[in-house]
Design a protein that fits this description.
- The chain has 87 residues and is α/β, with parallel strands linked by helices.
- It contains three helices and five strands; from the N terminus they run αβββαββα.
- Strands 1-4-5 form a three-stranded parallel β-sheet. Strands 2-3 form a two-stranded antiparallel ribbon.
- The chain is globular, with a radius of gyration of 12 Å.
């Protein structure tokens, strides 16, 4: 997570695919930073995670996922960013 957090500062990011649980660390602080910067993301998990209320509308894709489902979630995230007044 620290490396990903530094990446947000160092690189232009078009979007992100975030596994909710990265080796026991929850990705929500990084997701908050992406929200602040209006960078779209999709949350993924192999578990039935209860996401915080602030991420209730974030696109999600359960694992294992099919390519079609992942593509649809990514498209949803990118379209939401391009809608005026969203994010």
């Amino acid at each position: 997570l620290k490396a990903l957090d530094a990446l947000v500062d160092a690189q232009a990011i078009d979007g992100a695919l975030l596994d909710i649980n990265l080796g026991g660390e929850l990705v929500y602080p990084l997701a908050d930073r992406l929200l602040e910067r209006n960078i779209p993301f999709v949350l993924t998990s192999g578990y039935d995670d209860n996401v915080p209320e602030r991420f209730a509308d974030a696109p999600r894709c359960g694992k294992p996922y099919r390519l079609e489902a992942l593509t649809q979630a990514l498209e949803q995230a990118l379209q939401a960013r391009s809608v005026p007044g969203s994010g």
